[in-house]
Amino acid sequence: KVLIDVPPSDLAEELEQSQSQAQALQDTLQQVLDRREEERQSRQLLELYLQALKKEERILSKAAESETEPRKEMDVVDTGTSSTGVLAKTALSEQTLAALKGKPAPELCLDSQDLELVVREDTEALASSLSWDKQKAEALQQACDQELSKRLQQVQTLHSLRSVSKGKKTLP
């Protein structure tokens, strides 16, 4: 860095070289410094990227752990409440309620078991649990029912394709 900052004429005099050779030396030194700076920045960027990957892995592993943990849903028999709105509020898990509230198309985010629970839920209790009006809750239940039907249709189609595929394998 010091050699680059020195005027080329002084450097040429000190090295007993021509001024053009001193300038070429300074240019080369500057290129080396620039390359080192680029390498340093690349290393920093790579470290940040690796840190972000590790953070993302931790988040994904926590999400996977929470999905594999058994759900802490209350059983209707265990609640000891009557079959009014309070009972219906406890039939859906907090995760399911959060998904219903937070997603624009929650029926696509829920598993089939949760879809069945939503469809079977009392409309008024569902609306109360979500702080929605009854029409919006009914629309949600219809969307969940349609998604459930669509999934059932896909499973039936898959079974049909498998049976056709097995039939072809057994033919001579």
Automatic annotation (TrEMBL):
Region Disordered, residue ranges: 1-23, 61-82
SUPFAM superfamilies associated with the record: C-terminal domain of DFF45/ICAD (DFF-C domain) (SSF81783)
Listed Basic and acidic residues bias regions: 61-75
Transmembrane regions listed in the UniProt entry: none
Top-level taxon in the UniProt lineage: Eukaryota
Stretches assigned to the DNA fragmentation factor 45kDa middle domain: 2-119
InterPro entries the record matches: DFF-C, DNA_fragmentation_mid_dom
Listed Pfam families: DFF-C
Protein name per its UniProtKB record: DFFA factor
Native organism: Crypturellus soui
